[in-house]
Amino acid sequence: MIQWKKIFSFDSLAIALVCVIISTVVVWQFRSVQVNEDRSQVENLKMTELQDELINQKNNNEKLNNRLEELKKENDSIKNKESANNQLVQDLKRASQLAGLSSVKGQGVQIVLTNKPDLAVGEAEILEVLNELRASGAEALEVNGQRMTATSEVRQAGNYMMVNSQQTSSPFVIKAIGNANDLFRAITMVGGVKENQEYFIGFSISKSEDILISAVKDNGIVLKDQYMKEVKP
Amino acid sequence: MKISRNSLLVFLPILILGIFLGVQFRTIQEKEASNTFNKIQEKRKQTMQRISSETKLSEQLKSEIKKIEKDNISLYAAYSRLDKNGEFRKLNNQLARSLFLAGMTDVHGKGIIVTIDDASIPLKDRENSNSNDFVIHQQDIVAIINELRKGGAEAISINGERVVSSSAQICAGPTIIINHKKYITPFEIKAIGDPQLLFDTLVNSPKYVELKEFSLPISIKTFEDIQVNRFLLNKGNGEE
Question: How far apart are CA A68 and CA B61, in angstroms?
Fold first, then answer.
């Protein structure tokens, strides 16, 4: 027979009460520690983002500072009438390289995209490769002999591709001048452009010490200025 | 069993002691937690201050760069005026032309402004709940820029960053990096050129149709005169 009296005695009730209080305290404690941990994790995440931002801004300022130092030196040599001519020639050289008006050479990579029997290279594949190369510091780019300028388009038109309004087709030879190792690594990294694209189309890449990239002509076809006018200060 | 005085005397103090211990333990922990929290807050504040001072520095550097460049240009112009055989003047005109075509000068003219943002439809209203379809990606921006180039754009900028031959659009989480600077949605893309041709080319492109399909807010407006700012840094482009 169950001894009800014994079960509901004061002693056992007291023990039960204490147990309930202790377990409540333990759970409460545990939970609040967890909440605090979660909160600090969120705060930490925001911190790393802020730190990235700071590093990015610092790098940017370093570049600006370098350019400023360079300009100061140029300014000194322009002030001297004798060296001004040399400086002008150098400035012109750099400006025409930036615009794409002079051919350039240097180290870099060459990528060849080819159609497969069932799948053709599209606009998007070429654009993706170009964007990735630019993101990895490419300074000059060319697609099948066409220099990529600020206004160069890639247009799919039936079986052809139009680049700088010139008709071209597979294989697409993309040349890029820049740090060859950086460019190569960026394209061939795991989950990168090469891995994504070679599943569908032919994709090969090689580093080279001597990439030659052609110039565009200032004849209004690629670089246009029918609508834009310089803002005079 | 009978309730003994003794057991009460033992239980009550133990109970009170236990509660005291618990309260004490919690206060210590809370203090520690709030200490680390305060430390993180403090560090955050410092980092934000450093970012804002770096941003200030960058504005300062930019205006200094522009000042010296202006000085250089006026020096060249002065020499050109004095130039008798015309050789210097010829080179200087070529320089101005190259800088203009390279995107190193502020330009203005007819054109369009495209604004594009992430979709704002509540998640529950979307049939396809893949949230990736409702945000702007780097390939969207790359495709839009390419469409504008197809439409004969002469100068393009994204959120004020001039798009030059070496400009990439890089995805970085919720932001997109353009010319080494991070930008968040909405994106404002300016293009100078024939407004109607730019408009038609973009509206008839597969990318536009795709963005519309996923209800991404994209608006295109034509303008009689817009300004597209210059690209500031110029780095060497290989060797000649």
Answer: 7
Residue B26 sits at the chain A interface (C-beta within 8 Å): yes
Q: Per the CB < 8 Å rule, is B94 touching A92?
A: yes
- B208 and B156 Cβ atoms separated by less than 8 Å: no
User: Which residues, at least 6 apart from A117, have a Cβ–Cβ distance to it below 8 Å?
Assistant: none
Residue of B97, B149, B57 whose CA lies nearest to A54: B57
Tell me if the domain spanning A103-213 has CATH number 3.20.20.100. no
CA atoms within 13 A of residue B105's CA, in its CB half-sphere: 21
Residues 193-212 of B with CB under 8 A from A: 193-194
pLDDT, tens digit (0-9, with 9 covering 90-100), for A191-209? 899 999 999 999 999 999 9
Largest CA distance in chain B: 124
Going from N- to C-terminal start, the domains of chain A cover 9-79, 103-213
Distances (CA, A) of A46 to A56, A91, B55: 15, 43, 19
Retrieve residue A87's tokens: 């400086």
Determine the Cα–Cα distance for residues A100 and A98; give it in Å rounded to an integer: 5
Tokens of B8: 């009460």
- Which helix (H) or strand (E) segment holds residue A105: the answer is strand A104-114
All residues of chain A having their beta carbon less than 8 Å from the beta carbon of residue B37 are 36, 39-40, 43
Domain residue extents for chain B: 8-102, 106-228
CA pair distance A59, B196, nearest whole angstrom: 40
Q: Which residues contact B35 (CB under 8 A, 6 or more apart)?
A: none
In this prediction the ipTM stands at 0.78
- Domain B106-228, CATH homologous superfamily name and number: Protein of unknown function DUF881 (3.30.70.1880)
The alpha carbon of residue A119 is apart from the nearest alpha carbon of chain B, in Å, by 19
CA distance A137 to B6: 83
Mutate to test the interface with B, among A131, A139, A213 (most CBs of B within 10 A): A131
Q: Mind listing the pLDDT tens digit for each residue in A2-37?
A: 666 666 677 777 777 878 887 777 777 776 776 766
Chain B residue with CA closest to A180: the answer is B238
Q: Does any CB of chain A come closer than 8 Å to the CB of residue B20?
A: no
SS3 B183: strand
Joined together, the tokens standing for residue B40 give 């993180």
Query: How far apart, in Å, are the Cα atoms of B21 and each of A15, B45, B54, B224?
Result: 18, 36, 49, 76
